[in-house]
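Predict structure. Chain length: 153.
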Amino acid sequence: TYAPKLVLLDISDINCIQDVAKEILNCYGCVDILINNASMKVKGAVQSMSLELDKKIMDANYFGPVTLTKAILPNMISRRSGQIVLINSIQGKVGIPFRAAYAASKHAVLGFFDCLRAEMEEFDISIGTVNPTFICSYHRQPAPGNWEASVWK
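Prediction complete.
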């Protein structure tokens, strides 16, 4: 058994993910199961959302799990063993009004993991996706003009 180790990671900060993955692999030698379960969402009309916010949502919901998975994957491939799970959203399959950036990021990441599943079959690495319906997450009331405060995490 291993003593638990707390590793802090902001999944939307793509630049630090490689270092965190190296830290985990250096500490434990391998990752048997990777569960990608971080997400960020915002509610609002398309025309009121800035491109900056769209990119932030895409970084957290698409590039974050993809980058972390790609950092861990070579170790799993070399061992021909491992499981990767994406906790996604039903909005990765069906978009609803006022959630365009969120739904787009969830569609994109689901497509990536569907392709990855087919590619990893030959290495005996299991790729799974879970697309739950709406979940309760916390929300902060935004100050006027502060879009970051309108983000659910």
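Summary: Residues 41 and 102 are 5 Å apart (CA to CA).
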